[in-house]
Specification:
With about 325 residues, the protein is an alpha/beta fold. The chain has two domains: about 5-215, Spore Coat Polysaccharide Biosynthesis Protein SpsA, Chain A (Alpha-Beta Complex); about 220-325, no CATH class. Helix content is about 50%, strand content about 20%. The chain has 13 helices and nine strands. It has helices spanning about 15-25, 45-50, 70-80, 95-105, 140-145, 160-165, 190-200, 220-240, 245-270, 270-285, 290, 295-310, 310-325, and strands at about 5-10, 30-40, 60-65, 85, 90-95, 110-120, 125-130, 155-160, 205-215. Helix 7 (about 190-200) runs parallel beside helix 8 (about 220-240), helix 8 (about 220-240) runs antiparallel to helix 9 and helix 10 (about 270-285) packs antiparallel against helix 12.
Length: about 325
């Protein structure tokens, strides 16, 4: 049986690492290893990781804090699998996830990146909604750049050959290749996917079933979104020389999607003024989100306007009543 590898970047995740590892060790696929890369944690993460290293499938690496991209690169450098998956410590894989992806990749030799649908869970593990999947097959570089259908860092399993095709070694790096750009603390995923889509022939393809549960926490979303937008703009500047015409054509629409996403985060933070400003900024950049994804765009516009008019206290109460009556069945 072909061996697979699962890389788990871990930084100060003592409260969630055990649950993540239990889910990964319950995978039904028969031949796999798990590589935990402790990214300079200063809580009990190293001790918890060590407890799992008694299982022959688990190994633990440690490095000074350098971010998720560096942790993934270190994991890839020692991984033995032909197929390589990533699971953020705190996220969960359903038991059949790895088997489904390996089967998918074997059946479609031109697919380099297989990804699944995801649900959002809160700190207690309660499912809060389903993450939209804008495209699953026939995925173009423009769709990847504008809408990132993979969505989160725990959703994909990648063919090693696809990673090999995008490997590079920065001038200052003397030990190993890079696959994810370690200079990015945000947007390393979309930078990698866009670079792969523009420079290789590997296809991206999704499995609609929600095989991944990705954990979200409330608070601080707007600050994180600002940092992510700054990193996104730096990513565009870095990759534009690869295909200037591509970025000239698609960057305005992609930026509009980014601003729409920031507006949705502002709504979840109950910041009505910010949500309205970001929605206006998105529309000013491009009407593509409204044309290509009218449902999500209209919900965002209406929610931003309603929050701005009602204020955060009233909006919070309405959301509490809605959750009590109907539960959280969809993502805004």
């Amino acid at each position: 049986m072909t061996r697979a590898s699962i890389i788990v970047p871990a930084f100060n995740v003592a409260s969630t690492l055990k649950q993540t590892m239990q889910a990964l060790l319950a995978q039904t696929y028969g031949s796999y290893e798990i590589i935990i890369v402790d990214d300079g944690s200063c809580d009990e993460t190293p001790q918890i990781a060590t407890q799992f290293s008694t299982d022959s499938r688990v190994s633990v690496l440690r490095q000074a804090n350098r971010g998720v991209a560096a942790a993934r690169n270190v994991g890839i450098s020692v991984a033995q699998g032909e197929f390589i998956g990533f699971c953020n410590a705190g996220d969960l894989w359903l038991p059949n996830k790895l088997a489904r992806h390996v089967s998918h990749l074997r059946a479609h030799p031109k697919v380099g990146v297989s990804f699944s649908g995801s649900t959002l869970i809160d700190g207690a593990g309660t499912v809060k909604g389903r993450v939209p999947m804008p495209c699953v097959t026939d995925i173009s570089p423009a769709c990847i750049f504008k809408r990132n259908p993979i969505d989160n860092g725990s959703a994909m399993v990648i063919r090693r050959a696809a990673l090999t095709d995008i490997a590079y070694r920065p001038r200052r790096e003397i030990q190993r290749d890079w696959y994810f750009d370690e200079t990015f603390r945000h947007c390393a995923d979309i930078e990698c996917w866009t670079r792969m889509a523009l420079t290789t022939d590997w296809a991206f393809e999704g499995i609609r079933d929600a095989l991944t549960q990705t954990r979200v926490t409330d608070g601080g979303l707007c600050v994180k979104a600002d940092r992510q937008l700054d990193a996104w703009e730096r990513m565009v500047a870095k990759l534009t020389p690869l295909d200037p015409a591509f970025f000239r054509m698609n960057a305005p629409a992609a930026r509009a999607y980014q601003l729409r996403d920031m507006s949705r985060r502002a709504i979840r933070d109950l910041n009505g003024a910010r949500a309205v400003n970001l929605t206006y900024g998105s529309m000013a950049q491009s009407r593509a989100p409204l044309i290509e994804d009218p449902g999500q765009s209209l919900r965002t516009i209406c929610a931003a306007a309603a929050l701005f008019c009602a204020g955060p206290k009233t909006s919070r109460r309405v959301m509490q009543i809605k959750a009590a009556l109907f539960g959280s069945k969809a993502v805004l």
